[in-house]
Predict the structure.
Amino acid sequence: EHCLGPGPMATFHAVVRALPESVCQQALRVEKGGAVDFARAEREHQLYVGVLRHKLGLQVLELPADESLPDCVFVEDAAVVCEETALLTRPGAPSRRKEVTEAMKIALESLNLNVVEMTDENATLDGGDVLFTGREFFVGLSKRTNQRGAEILADTFKDYAVSTVPVHDSLHLKSFCSMAGPNLIAIGSSEGAQKALKTMQQMSDHRYDKLTIPDDAAANCLYLNIPNKGHVLLHRAPEEYPESAKVFEKLKDHMLIPIANIELQKVDGALTCCCILINKTSEL
Amino acid sequence: MTTEVGSEAEVKKEAEKLEPDTAKEKPEEASESLENQKTEETEETQDSSSSPVPTSQSSPTSRKERDPSEGKGISRFLPPWLKKQKSYSIAEPKDEAKKKAEGDEHVEECERQLPEEVAELKGEAAAENHQTKTDDKEEEKHSVSSAETQPAKEDSKEIEVEKVTEEPEEKLEEETGKRETKEVQTTEIKMEKAPQKAPKKIKTVQCKVMLLDGTEYSCDLEKRAKGQVLFDRVCEHLNLLEKDYFGLLFYENSDQKNWLDSSKEIKRQIRNFPWLFTFHVKFYPPDPSQLTEDITRYFLCLQLRQDIVSGRLPCSFVTHALLGSYTLQAELGDYDPEEHNSDYISEFQFAPNQTKEMEDKVVELHKTHRGLTPAQADSQFLENAKRLSMYGVDLHHAKDSEGVDIMLGVCANGLLIYKDRLRINRFAWPKILKISYKRSNFYIKVRPAELEQFESTIGFKLPNHRAAKRLWKVCVEHHTFFRLISPEQPAKGKFLTLGSKFRYSGRTQAQTRQASNLIDRPAPYFERTSSKRISRSLDGAPVGITDQSLLRDLSATAAGPTGDEAAVLAKLKNGESREEDGSPIKSPPLELTQDGKKVGPRAEGPCSGARDADKSSHETLSVVEEKKRAEVGIEETVVINEINEGKIQVAIDGGEPCKVEQLSKKDSSSTSSESSSSSESEDEEVGEYQPYHRVTEDVIREEKEGNEDAKEVEGYTAKVVQCVESVIEGSKEKVSIGHAQVAEESLVEGNAVSGTPEEKSFTEEAKQDLREEREEEQLKINGDLSHIGIDVKPQIICCSEPPVVKTEMVTISDATQRTEISTKEVPIVQTETKTITYESPQLDGSAGGDAGVLLSAQTITSESVSTTTTTHITKTVKGGVSETRIEKRIVITGDADIDHDQALAQAIKEAKEQHPDMSVTRVVVHKETELAEEDEG
């Protein structure tokens, strides 16, 4: 198994976390919106985990909810995993730092990952600001992620170029983009999204294909490459974003799975936020 | 200008006194040609000194024969590498290494022989000099963009046989002065010594070169030898043919590395004794699998291992382990539990800080490589190493305009800006309009970003002016090597006389690939470090830890030469003598082509007949390239230098942290040297390089860089090959058959742009091709035959895919702007067959009845994962026109996972890169696919 694959690698494991009821009242949010319907949010999340576990056959490791951590369902921010290494982050929001728990570390170590902790108190990094394309990293410099955090990421994943992308109008870099295929960046249509894409293109030696999605939020989709299933893409449901869904439906090579994420979106949750994907086989 | 004027006057004076015949020096070249005389002399003396006595008699004669043709200026058009090779083979004695041992004798010999040769040559050489110089002058009146003119100068220098007496040793110290001073000194010395010293004494200097395997190579060089002489010797010692990726480094102040300039005398570049160099990769090939020989890959591996161990090439733990495991496989072969006890690994170093855990991982991975040959293990090593983000990035410390520490990284694709490991900006070569330095500042002028109107200039502060110049030179060289088809001549325009005239003069990647494509020797035997160990243990010598320790301190400068090294030397020598035994390797690869020396057709490969249907799910591409040689006039292109005007301050998009600096016009006073710094190559305070001022003819076009827009994906369906992008490069060459003198001038004759029925297309590339000239041009090529007028004859391939018909044949011939599309319905449902033929109009050669005289034919087959390439090369002479025809048949096999578009484009790209001066005259794409079920998956 070669460590430097041409694209996001085959996925075998996923780490998720149950959502606490406190998510309704206390979760951080960029702007005020409707109240989160907990039952519905839980149903949506269960459906999401169910797709990963049953439909896609991933080994899903589910951490228990912690009521004191209203945002703990968004595990993506707590760790960045690439190949054999997991970097436990230092989230930008102080209230979220405790999400990076011992349980998380143990879970990742149980998957035989080499776990690196971000101890520098000047560093902040949210996993939501980290876009790994398979060839390189882009790190959004946002309210949650700073230069030092990006540097530590670069030190951790030395094989790859790590380029920084200023993010102004959104919470995270991945609030408006994500990988939708081995060489394919899904990108929102907003000015900020397009500007960020331009920056990424300028920084990269590689040329990516892009998939322009009318709605920024829908541009966050979850791509997986699963043995015997091929390209799998979880994207936002047509009920939520009909125009964006149409764009995804043009992807003929992908197994497309529409997923609703109405409730968690109210607290800035997107599809990639709720899992950490690991492409290691467990015996290694 | 002060420098120039000063030295010019001096030289003139000197020339008059010394030798009336030489007084015709061109003023602005004065200092340079003075240098050249010396170099010239170097080559001369070497020639005679090292030739054995009997042959030395004939050497002047052969020279006589050669010189007149050169004097006529034909060789001006030789590509530089060809020329170099030639002079190398003449000037470089084959038994040099043996000679070294008998140093004193050797000097005596020279003394004896020189006078007569001098006498013999003086007269005629002087006469020819007139002619050549005149030629040169004419040449330079046109601002010549073509690099082919550069060798001309060198050639003409070569035949200046004026003998100047040797300079005394003290001269070296004086060289630490400024350039003009130096020249003056030289002159005086010469005048002094000229009368009294007729016989010549050759002063030699010992050079030591640290090789990549940790051994040391040493040789005695004539004091005035150019860098090329040493480099060629080292490469010969290493049995390395693909040498253009490599160079010699020397260190100044222990940490500043400088590349030895091949075209300049060594003593003018390196100041301190002993002359100590390091053999090093200079241009890291982005795709090492395209190197022709395993031995080249081996040296690249050795370099990368050094880079990794020294920390220059950062890797993750896993990558260290993986690369280390390939090293073990290459060095030790399959893992053997009996032989490879727990300690075997600790002799190797894989990482800057190696841990037991890492060693365990290396062993674990080593076990999985069973069966890989050393060459395969090296290839795997390189395949992984080349993806590392810092692979081939040459880093330079700098500060941005706010004084923040950054690093500038020069690589094949452009310039990268780093701050603490993070990439904060990147300027691809196509974005950079000009690279310059002034004192310790380094500037790049970049194209306006989208929606911006003005070019911007970004300045960086380097630690000192020499660092700035070093960086500038590295940029010039990297740009030329990776982006141009042929090197650019050092500009003579008045804008540039202020600053450095430095240009890269070696072969470009395109040229070296082309040349190495014609390497035709059995894979040379070479020893990896471990095989050395094994052979020694067989000899009864102790199994040396020392040997393996090389791997430990690869980055250390010295690993003393031992008796073992002698053994290696001897073996390499054997390899060399094998070469000499009448095998054609000795002559430079490309001369083979041009002389038509190759004998006998070896095989008649499958050629253009790609239309015969292949097995299903195959794609057949048959690219027919032709090289036409005809007597043609010399074409010259006048380059208009950009005027260096005040720069406008513009902020750069994308978080550019380096503030733009307002620049004023260059003031000519800036040449007045402030530094007492030494070697002349370092004392220029300014330098400019405009990567694109001759871009229309020489930039490698298929480069995807530059267009920053990603392709928009419209449905990620399996793609059918529908289009062929092909750049047509015409090549006109002069052949005068009597004298194996070949003039060559490559220029782009036309540009073919492709069309495609899908949204997704090669438009980007096409746009990139054009943007140098008309950046805004939008190509509308969807399904219709359009023409874009570039340069000369536009040649366009376009074809569309009708939605209904499953089988079709599209033939496009733009000879008469006529399109034939014959479509027939065939009741095939399962497969889709498509043949696209593209033919160039100017090429009727092979179609004609006159087949000409076949000189040689050759068929080469190579295979990669999904493609099989059959190359068939024939050379014919027809009515005084020599023609090389290369037909490539590329079969791309694979299922839907393979991006056929990409594979095809890659195949064409490679064909073009291998033969940049040939024209693609015919492309036949035969495509068979099994139709995929739409509802699948």
Q: What stands out?
A: Chain B has a mean pLDDT of 58.
